[in-house]
Amino acid sequence: MGTVYKRKRSKFLWIQYCKDGKVYRESAKSTDYDYARRLLKVKEGRLAEGRSPEINASKTRIDQLVDLYLESYKTNGYRSIERAEEFADLIRQHFGHLRAVELTTEHMRQYREKRKAQKVKDSTINRELSSLKRMYRLGMEQDPPLVYRVPKIPFARENNIRKGFFEYKDFEKIRNAAAPHLKVAITIAYYTGMRVGEILGLRWDQVDLKDGILRLETGTTKNSEGREVPLVPDLRQILEWWWLETKNTYPWCQWIVHWKGQRIQKIRIAWKKAFGRAKYEDNVFHDFRRTGVRNLVRAGVSQPVAMAISGHKTDSVFRRYDIVSHQDIVQAGEKLTRYIQEAKTNTQRIGPQADTPADTALAQGLEK
């Protein structure tokens, strides 16, 4: 039976354990009793498995955990590798010189204050600290473990829930102000609710103009599941026009959203320019995703079919996800077409030059 104890001349706790009459003693390199007890259990567990007790995770530096974190992203082929590298650089810069056991809540509080002074949002800081938590978890999963516990990380409460969406007239105004390649991306986003990353990864071989279907392949979406999206007439017309433009000028280009035949990774600059020309201020591109789902629901498309098209997935929807058929997708496209056509008609009818019956009656009365 092992024990955790305090030596008189040591500021750290010590652990003691034994096997076959041999006693092992070592410093836990920490004043945290929970950490020392966890370390003791790990040591005893290794001895029970017949493995060597000579592990000194107290020497692990956060730098090593950062390397492990980046390696996991590269090994698994995660698409957000660029974002992970940004987080890794920040963690290495602020905590890389520390040993993993030395990281305290005070260190993280100072980190948060420093980042807030740089006008970084709480939501972004939370993502950065979440990456630090992930680094520790990966360290615990190693054999032998590089760390024996994940530090308690204080996360700020986030209040960044957006409620924005685009009405049809707003969509048209922004699309008319956008560069050609952005027009295509905006149109796809408005009618389908697809994520920007999914849109930028679309290839021409995923478009079936004959059947009016856009196919997202397995492994290319956020949840790695493939799906089908209907093409309403306006979207189909834009894609046909852009396909002809692309094939005539850049016949080798396989990407739908491209700049001079080259794949586009980000559209932030083009989006800001279009938004400025359209004189809008408070919407982001992701609001098109909310708009797409809203249009589907208002068009009368059932929730499981709408979620299948947009790629949203919850426990309740997941149980019914497989019953969504190809015909459901086609019917959803027909319903959405009728809804958009009505929205266009109403927009034209309520134009600035249109006279209401009340206006006409008033004018006739004045003439008399």
Give a written overview of the molecule.
There is one protein chain. With 368 residues, this protein is mainly α. The chain folds into three domains: 3-55; 59-141; 168-349, Orthogonal Bundle (hpI Integrase, Chain A). It is built from 15 helices and eight strands. It has helices at 33-48, 62-76, 81-95, 105-117, 122-141, 168-176, 180-192, 196-200, 233-249, 268-278, 287-298, 303-310, 315-320, 326-349, 357-367, and strands at residues 3-6, 13-19, 22-27, 207-208, 213-216, 227-230, 258-259, 262-263. The strands form three sheets. Strands 1-2-3 form a three-stranded antiparallel sheet, covered by helices on one side. Mean pLDDT is 80; it is low at 315-323.
Secondary-structure topology with pairs:
Blueprint: E1 3-6, E2 13-19, E3 22-27, H1 33-48, H2 62-76, H3 81-95, H4 105-117, H5 122-141, H6 168-176, H7 180-192, H8 196-200, E4 207-208, E5 213-216, E6 227-230, H9 233-249, E7 258-259, E8 262-263, H10 268-278, H11 287-298, H12 303-310, H13 315-320, H14 326-349, H15 357-367
Antiparallel strand pairs: 1-2, 2-3, 4-5, 5-6, 7-8
What is the annotated CATH architecture of the largest domain?
A: Orthogonal Bundle
* Residue share in β-strands: 5-15%
Number of helices: 15
* Total number of domains: 3
> What is the alpha-carbon Rg in Å?
29 Å
How much helix, percentage-wise, in residues? 40-55%
Mean pLDDT: 80
Number of strands: 8
The CATH topology of the largest domain comes to: hpI Integrase, Chain A
Query: What overall form do the CA principal axes indicate?
Result: elongated
- First-to-last CA distance: 107 Å
Please name the fourth-level CATH homologous superfamily of the largest domain.
Intergrase catalytic core
How are strands sequenced across the largest beta sheet? 1-2-3
Instruction: Sketch the topology as an H/E string, one letter per element.
Output: EEEHHHHHHHHEEEHEEHHHHHH
Which stretches are low in confidence, meaning pLDDT under 50 for 5 or more residues running?
A: 315-323
Largest sheet: number of strands, sense, barrel closure = 3 strands, antiparallel
Given this structure, which CATH class of the largest domain is correct? Mainly Alpha
Q: What structural class results from the helix and strand content?
A: mainly alpha
